[in-house]
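Minimal example, chain plus pyridoxal-5'-phosphate.
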Amino acid sequence: MTESTNGTREPSRTGRSAEALGRAIADHLRYSIGRPAAALQPTHYYRALALAVRDRMQDNRTASTQTSLDLGNKVTCYLSAEFLMGPQLGANLLNLGIEDAARDALAELGQDLYEVLACEEEPGLGNGGLGRLAACYLDSLATLERPAIGYGIRYEFGIFDQEIHDGWQVEKTDNWLDNGNPWEIAKPDVNYLVGWSGHTEHYLDDAGRDRIRWVPGRLIKGVAYDTPIQGYGVKTCNVLTLWSARAVKEFALEAFNTGDYYKAVEDEVTSETVTKVLYPNDEPEAGKRLRLLQQYFFVSCSLQHVLHIMDDLADASVHDLPERFALQLNDTHPSIGVAELMRLLVDERRLDWNTAWGITVATFGYTNHTLLPEALETWPLGLFSESLPRHLEIIYEINSRFLDEVRAKFPGDEDRVRRMSLIGEDGGKTVKMAYLATVGSHAINGVAALHSELLKDSVLKDFYEMWPERFSNKTNGVTPRRFVALSNPGLRALLDRTVGEGWLTDLDRLRGLEAFADDPAFRQEWRAVKRANKARLAELVQTETGIELDPSWLFDIQVKRIHEYKRQHLNVLNIVTQYLRLKQNPDLQMAPRAFIFGGKAAPGYFLAKRIIKLITAVGDMINVDPSVNQFMKVVFLPNFNVQNAHLIYPAANLSEQISTAGKEASGTGNMKFMMNGALTIGTLDGANVEIREEAGADNFFLFGLTVDEVEALKRDGYRPAEYIAANPELAAVLDLIEHGHFSHGDTEVFRPLVHNLRYDDPFLVCADYASYVACQDEVSAAWQDRDHWSHMSILNTARSGKFSSDRAIAEYCDDIWDVSALTVH
Ligand SMILES: *Cc1c(COP(=O)(O)O)cnc(C)c1O
């Protein structure tokens, strides 16, 4: 075991040597875990090492806060209802640069780092891409040395665990906190009261002015839990503050006094349900009120916290808020913050309206994540006014002043005024949260070039015409620390050797790989790395599903939430097409392929759940049929999450990004695949457009209708039956599924899916089918030329630099937040 370089023993809380870490682990096993040596399991070593690592971040955290306070640097606050952080231990070891020390220290204790890492329950506090984006951005903010706070919700139960029973998705509660969470530090003294419901009343203040106050019907307490966010290779350590709901004890006192002890306890229980569970998206109506409460709860705590920090600054007042903090709204979930900040400034700080509004707009930025009308948040007016009566009044006031501005800018255009109102009139009055976020922000952005353009000429068109200067694009990115270095150690080593270690914080340096794209020896190494990753994934697939995969096959992977717009069913239609071709022509020479799927369906999303059943049913038939299983297998890998994503993205040869053009705002999975050398088969949607631009059209498999063609087709009246009638293969595939070929003769189970495709097909699966199948045939042909495939694969990684979240965060900091780097010593 290595001693520290100067021979003295390093402190066990901060030392970076294996020796110091070893002592720290032993200390934590003894004093924090409290287990006799004989009873120690890998999970205890996990907790002890995690605590030792947290200690090492804590000093950096203190230094970062102090530096930022001393120098008055502006801070980014990233407000997000979801943070899909993934396992923390590996990422923190990497960012601290103590992976080897940890491996050695554990080895000395007879433990294997890999086994210890596997003990972590990942915090699944998000649904998918949006939550994972927030997590990648926290990693980049810290690595770029930008002071930042992530604000969110400490859900007791994160996204459900998915099991597959008899081919169907079954949801299990995610008990991620069962064994405690070594990363967080509870801060019971950092707590705020949050009101809910009740009424508003007028009163005269000391100066005799008429004022309004909110008298909530209920109070809930929010308590902070802080998780350190360590930057890579720097001292900067930011923080993720998650709020947890508690009952307000004094509030329940009356019940206690009147002897209604159980009523008081009941109140306590209901208060704590506020942060009980993460809602799956695509879940209609049910539980909506609690969701609004969750949003308001975490936003109010966060804003109160920010104002509290402002109060403590010697050199600033609340008027300086926009100079000291940037508040970013990750989608509309935190957009109630616009009204809440106004309430805090006007009602509680007694600022005049115009001053407060100036501060609010200068401080907030809004990132839009979707154009899907059903996903744009609106709240029924009745529900809203019962829940947040004062906020509704404030929104009315914002709206009336805003609409006057619209009238001034577009005189006589009352239709425009009606369209732009924050209060929707169609089908029962609603509060339109995307509009509130837009009006309350000085900067509005989409998440890929195409998406930002579509935003400007669809859902926010009127607002773009009002304030064109507020709109910009910030194409998403992903962190290469987690999604290359941590998840693909083989590639990491090869990149280090080939382009030097700097790529990890300057991903454009991967361009240096281009020179090796035609080097036979390098291609050999490239393939060896990919092959080892495929063997790793094959092992996981074997344990999870019992299906055996051959790592020499083409690994064709689609992992993401299951959704009609993402079109997993289009993928299945191609699989069944290839299956039919093989059945009809046993001599067909097909390039062997493993079709691998993963992803969760929202529990209430009927068709998405049928799509999972279809994938597993097709797999069940194909995988055991000796006349086809030499050429194809179909796998549904259960419970796609960040942990298994680490094994999945690096193992792909082909990345499926096949959404209907115009529907996927950006995608980030597409970027993770590209960095790891997968080729993309995709539509011109979201960031695929930019991926193809960067990779070069020759290194991308393009198919399908464009956004313009999709719109034209819909406008002219799309009739899927015409496409089915014109394509005998498509007709045969649909018949086969509908007539129960994959369901033991059961003609009911897939009928809703097939009917949807035949008679409605809102996402144009039938229209894109022929183009997709033809493109898949091109993929198969290209795969036969291994050297050329490697050439394309190397170029994809080489040209993925743009998709680092470091690039995205640098753009946000420069264009929207005006937050500069601050080196911590
Ligand atoms: C990246 C990621 C996503 C987003 O995938 P898309 O293909 O962009 O939809 C969802 N879930 C997890 C676990 C991820 O890592």
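The mean pLDDT is 95. The longest helix spans residues 42-71.
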